[in-house]
Amino acid sequence: MRIPLRRQGCSLQMKGSTVRAQSGNTPVLSAEIYVIPLEANRFLVYAPLRHAAFVGNTGIVNLLADLREGRTEECGNDETLEFLRRLEIVDAGPETPPREVFPGEPNPVSVTLFLTTACNLRCAYCYAAAGENKARYMPLDLARRGIDFVVGNALRRGETHFEVNFHGGGEPSRNWPVLTAALAHARGQAEAHGLKLTAYVATNAVFSENQLDWIVAHLDGASVSCDGLPEVHDSNRVTSGGKGSSASVIHSLRRFDAEDFSYGIRMTVTAAAIPRLADSVEYLCANFRPGQIQAEPAYQIGRWAGAPSAETEAFVAAFREARERARGYGRELTFSAARAGTLTNHFCGATQDLFALTPDGSISSCYEVFDESSPRAKTFLYGRSSNESWRFDREKIVFLHRQSVDNRAWCAGCFARWSCGGDCYHKALAIYGEGEFAGTDRCAIIRELTKDQILAHIAEAGGVFWHTPPENAAGGCACVSCGDDKRIPRVPLLI
User: Fold this and answer.
1) CATH number for the domain including 266?
2) Are 337 and 442 in contact (CB under 8 A)?
3) What angle do CA 156, 160, 163 make, to 5 degrees?
4) Residues near 477 by beta carbon (within 8 Å), at least 6 away in sequence
5) Contact predicate 454/440, CB 8 Å
6) Predicted confidence (pLDDT) at residue 470 exceeds the cutoff of 90
7) Contact criterion met (CB below 8 Å) for 382 and 400
8) Contact criterion met (CB below 8 Å) for 487 and 459
9) CB of 486 closer than 8 Å to CB of 459
10) Domain total for the chain?
11) What is the pLDDT, as a whole number, of residue 133?
12) What contacts 63, CB < 8 A, 6 or more positions away?
């Protein structure tokens, strides 16, 4: 068996020519290809920039290697080459990698307000260690300035909308007067300028009844921190008095459902909670109506520094089982960096002009850097509000923009790089500091779950191949049976 390709991570990579053959009918490889082993003599062939994938055997992998190396004397049969042309893997001309460009100073139309570092909970794994230090509260005039800034940007850019998000290194509702007054100001600006406003909150959902009334009446949605089964949730998410918070969260979720209020659930999974992840997801699906459920391993900083890692193979296995149970209820379980089908060179707003205001007026590009005392504040705080104006540190902005996956050597051989976008830069810094990135335990999770998604795309497209743009999206025959694992479609065009 000959597969003369370079291995990195769990995949084999070959980069194709970016120029169509100019003479005769000589086929030319025209895609960045990754070959991912599945089982004996079966490989997932994936061209991320073409949104294309299929499952093939050793023969077709070797054919692709021959094309890469210019050996065309044994270039396969016409049917196979036509199949590869249909997927734009052969003879399709240049590919265009995703590369976001951010000229000049930031001009966002979305603002995130870190309203306070105060919190009514003392979660065991809190990345911000909220409640341990003197609380900081954003003043209303600063919140208004942030809103006015993005409104002005929207008008200059000719946009029809702007967005306000309430977040922070604590619970936003602990600065309730500013939350409600800031939203009233934003509503007034929207009406005055004929703009549409959307407003969201990231919250632990431990509210008073009056707060619940206001939230469902005034906000467009919420991201709720909830870990599933009450006993799992209460093992880590306790009040400042040491009591479990699940009863309050359950009450809020039931109220949201009764009011048809839009919300998603964000689960934090500790090593101890991995065996109960599937049960926790099923509990949420059976009892509530979240639009989406996201599960992430607990982050080992803040109060959780030094705790056992949940970034393990056991997490992947538990996630897969939980995902299937969620599907049984018509729900989606997600992991932030597994998003096959997305093309990007950035994981999140941290490296592309996220505009978040800290309580004292600094501008942060990262949700996990909420004030000047935050670890890595020097990296992610890139400006501040001063005397009714905004000052940006252009050098920091340029540096942050460069922290994209296409500038990271270690990621060059990973098949998930153009959808993962390099994962969380903050997490990478927590592990490597300023040293060169060399992968994290999350990388293995990302690759496994992304592989699952690619195989699911193939199956959903008919079981032979996956390819978008839409005119090529039909997948041909619906032959998907493959032993015990129906996530791996059987491909008839093997050579």
Assistant:
1) 3.20.20.70
2) yes
3) 95
4) 462, 463, 464, 492
5) no
6) no
7) yes
8) yes
9) yes
10) 2
11) 84
12) 75, 76, 80, 495
Cβ-contact 182, 176 below 8 angstroms:
no
What's the whole-model pTM score? 0.90
Cα within 13 Å of Cα(415), Cβ side: 35
369 shares a domain with 221: yes
How many Å apart are CA 72 and CA 278, to the nearest integer? Answer: 50
Query: If you search the block for the tokens 């004030």, which residue do you land on?
Result: 371
Tokens of 120: 């009514």
Instruction: For residue 202, list its beta bridge partners.
Output: 223
- CA gyration radius for the chain? 25
Instruction: Give tens-digit pLDDT for 276-307.
Output: 999 999 999 999 999 999 999 999 998 999 99
Provide DSSP, 318-376.
HHHHHHHHHHHTT--EE-TT--TT---S-SSGGGTT--EE-TTSEEES-TT--STTSTT
Specify the pLDDT at position 13: 65
- In which region does residue 376 sit, left (phi positive, over 0), alpha (psi from -120 to 50) or beta (all else)? left
Q: Which of 16, 59, 61, 15 is nearest to 36 (CA)?
A: 61
Residue 87 neighbours by CB distance under 10 Å: 20
Domain extent at residue 480: 1-99+408-417+425-495
Flag whether pLDDT at 443 surpasses 70: yes
Bridge partners, 6 (sequence order): 13
- Same domain flag for 201 and 325: yes
Would you tell me how many other CB atoms lie within 10 Å of the CB of residue 280?
25
- Which three-class secondary structure state does DSSP give residue 260? coil
Task: For residue 293, tell me if it sits in a domain.
Answer: yes
- The overall average pLDDT reported for the chain is 89
Judge residue 239's burial from the number of C-beta atoms within 10 Å of its C-beta, 0-12 exposed, 13-18 middle, 19 or more buried.
Answer: middle
Helices and strands (DSSP H and E) totals, the chain: 14, 17
What gap in Å lies between CA 39 and CA 46, rounded to an integer?
16
What is the DSSP track for 374-443?
STTHHHHEEEEEETTEEEE-HHHHHHHHT-SGGG-GGGGG-TTHHHHTT--HHHHHHHHTTSPP---HHH
Quote the tokens at residue 396: 């920091």
Contact 100, 344 (CB under 8 A): yes
Verify that 349 and 430 share a domain, yes or no: no
Residue with tokens 């880590």: 236
First to last CA, the chain: 13
